[in-house]
Amino acid sequence: MKIELPEHKKLVYEMTIPIRWGDMDAMNHVNNTTYFRYLETMRIDWMRSIGCRPDPKGEGPVIVNAFCNFYRQLEYPGDVLVKMYVSDPARSTFESWGTMSRTDDPDVIYAAGGATTIWVNFQAQKAAPLPDWMRRHIE
Fold this sequence. Notes:
This protein has a single domain, classed as Thiol Ester Dehydrase, Chain A. It starts with 9 loop residues before the first strand and ends with a helix. It is of the alpha+beta class. The mean pLDDT is 93. The chain has two helices and six strands; from the N terminus they run E-H-E-E-E-E-E-H. 18% of the residues lie in helices and 38% in strands.
């Protein structure tokens, strides 16, 4: 199945993640929870690549909602090509999206998901405005 993402989503990051034998479940395909781990790994790697390192005594991103739609089964062995998109920056939130395909089948989306991220002041445990430097990466 080929998924078309709306134009307002901005591609910001790509990475390859190996499918590990331990990622599979009793049905011999990647366990559904592992897809969320792939999306998380991609988000964290992207954030690190832009210098976003949350400070527990300051501010940083927190995921408040996540989802994943499964279209085809990923199976071992292989590598997952994960692409990350961002969109919809608001005062303190933005959306992130991810598509997952196999590197040996890059035109077919096996799963797609996303998350709503809120920027927070960790000490106050309250939403904080997205910093300008972060907003520039999203817009």
